[in-house]
Write a structure and sequence with these properties.
Elements lengths: L1 H10 L14 H134 L2 H22 L1
GO molecular function: proton-transporting ATP synthase activity, rotational mechanism
Organism: Tupistra muricata
Family: Belongs to the ATPase B chain family.
Length: about 180
């Protein structure tokens, strides 16, 4: 105990004890000051620090929970979007296949219609040619018949005299009369 009182008594003998000044001996003053400040901070600030850390921990946990919920929601939306994309791709493939088959069907129908139209046109052409041939043949027959008739009339007119003409008429009248008797 004597040592403790000696230390306080010796304080009175310091020349700068009554004035304010800086103690430049870092090793003597700094660890003591730091230990006192840390002790006070730990004693009084422990509750406040715990509260601050608990609040921060709760905010971080709630942010993590919200992030997890948002992630789950985003994953669900992504899955729905993928399912919708698969459905749309299948429908597009179906439309494409139906379109191709429809195009092929229309192509076949068009080819068949064109073929039948060409066949009908060919038939019309053949009928027209046959009709024109028959008409030409008939015209040639009429011309030949008229020429033959004119030639025969010319020959008859030049060869027939009135006596031969009279005998021909009489013979024809006789034939007609015989035919009339047979029919009666």
């Amino acid at each position: 105990m004597n040592n403790v009182t000696d230390s306080f008594v010796s304080l009175g003998h310091w020349p700068s004890a009554g004035s304010f000044g800086f103690n430049t001996d870092i090793l003597a003053t700094n660890p003591i000051n730091l230990s006192v400040v840390l002790g006070v901070l730990i004693f009084f600030g422990k509750g406040v620090l715990n509260d601050l850390l608990d609040n921060r921990k709760q905010r971080i946990l709630s942010t993590i929970r919200n992030s997890e919920e948002l992630r789950r929601g985003a994953i669900e939306q992504l899955e729905r979007a993928r399912a919708h994309l698969r459905k749309v791709e299948m429908e597009a493939d179906e439309y494409r296949m139906n379109g191709y088959s429809e195009i092929e069907r229309e192509k076949a129908n068009l080819i068949n219609a064109t073929s039948s139209s060409l066949e009908q046109l060919e038939n019309y052409k053949n009928e027209t040619l046959h009709f024109e041939q028959q008409r030409a043949i008939n015209q040639v027959r009429q011309q030949v018949f008229q020429q033959a008739l004119q030639g025969a009339l010319g020959t008859l007119n030049s060869c027939l005299n009135s006596e031969l003409h009279f005998r021909t008429i009489s013979a024809n009248i006789g034939i007609l009369g015989a035919m009339e008797e047979i029919t009666d």
